[in-house]
Amino acid sequence: MKITVRLLGKLRNNLPAEKTGPTSARMTLDDGATPELLIERLGLKVGASYLVLINDENVPASDYATQAIEDGDAVTICPPIQGG
User: Which residues contact 78 (CB under 8 A, 6 or more apart)?
Assistant: First the structure.
């Protein structure tokens, strides 16, 4: 299946070669892929506190391993937001 992935902040350094813009790329994933598998495939730290959106809908961190990504989905991953 084909998806669009958008990585924000420092994460955009991990975009695959098939870039479609400065923060986005097209990717091919196996059916049944999840945010956790996508994070791993992108070389990002599994278990970090990312904000993940699928088609602009928030995916709770507790669902990263089970939420299915579907063909044509747009997945956005933001780095953890820190403040003080």
Answer: 8, 9, 11, 50, 51, 52, 53
User: Is this prediction's pTM over 0.85?
Assistant: yes
Reading the chain (84 residues) residue by residue, the pLDDT tens digits are 999 999 999 999 999 888 899 999 999 999 999 999 999 999 999 888 899 999 999 999 999 999 999 999 999 999 977 665
41 DSSP assignment:
H
Question: Which domains are seen in the chain, by residue range?
Answer: 2-78 (3.10.20.30)
